[in-house]
Amino acid sequence: MTTTIPDAVRGHLLSGFIDSETRTLLQYGAQRGNMGHVGGPMGRVVAWLWRSSPNETMSFLADLLIELRRSTNPPIEPNDLLGAQGLGSFLTADEFAELTERARDEVPRRCGLIP
User: CA-to-CA distance for 113 and 44, rounded, in angstroms?
Assistant: First the structure.
């Protein structure tokens, strides 16, 4: 079954997923230089989001990084998140290459890490 998710509902679902995944990643020891494996649910959400809205994917990754940075010292860096095992596990190699190339520029800007 395929259905359209209203924007307001989609935003709530993604926010809740970010909160849940942040807690899980921190519980399993995510830290600067070692994100570990983000798991299948994250890989599935990133693939679905990338294929439906690359711009929204950049916002999603930036929001996730902001939440992770609030709880880690030293703060997790964008490359830590983009290099996490499993992040692109449901994307083709070309899709993941395109996502990471775009995210290396956009995610830090959206997080306010570079002007």
Answer: 27
**How many Å apart are CA 89 and CA 54, to the nearest integer?**
17
- Tens digits of residue pLDDT in 10-38: 999 999 999 999 999 999 999 999 998 99
3-state secondary structure of 107: helix
Coil, strand or helix at 31: strand
Residue 13 lies in a domain: no
Residue whose token pair is 């190699």: 93
Residue 90: which domain range?
Answer: 54-115
pTM: 0.93
Taking a C-beta distance cutoff of 8 angstroms, is the pair 42, 86 a contact?
yes
